[in-house]
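Record type: monomer structure entry
Structure origin: computed from sequence
Chain ID: A
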Amino acid sequence: MESGPKYHILSVLVENKAGVLARVAGLFSRRGYNIESLAVAPTDDGEVSRITIVVDVESTSLEQITKQLFKLINVLKISELHPDDSVERELVLVTVRATPDARGQIIELVQVFEGRIIGVGHDTLTVSLDGAPRKIDDFEDLLRPYGIVDLQRTGRVALPRRDRRSRPRAVKQAS
């Protein structure tokens, strides 16, 4: 049985300027790197944004990715976040079929997963749930038999765990 993560989580701090995300995404596209997840938002410093990129390990060399990213002018810092030493979260919004017979079961499932019902229709429920990506996967799998009408996931966001001795591994810039 294979152990360890099957993906890299990169936390990339960039200048919060127009076109930076397009340049980062374009780099991945040009090199044929497979992005599993991409999330971006400003940090507490309005001049800096954090891009969280989840990349498939098997299709991509981390060293090659970071060398290419460091070539982009607006990239300030790159850290690899190991899944065991980071906190990952994702948000899902899902509209599911909810027949009168199934509605109670779906509501109970939402409660067990600590989600929220944010919309109620005659034959549907719209649910919001955030948590670890595995929790979102499990929730989605359990809702599937009821009939998923619409689903949107945000992609992973991650930060290093600060309550442990480990720190995010800063990726050194190639000379």
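Annotation 1: The chain has a mean pLDDT of 88.
Annotation 2: The first strand starts at residue 7 and ends at 15.
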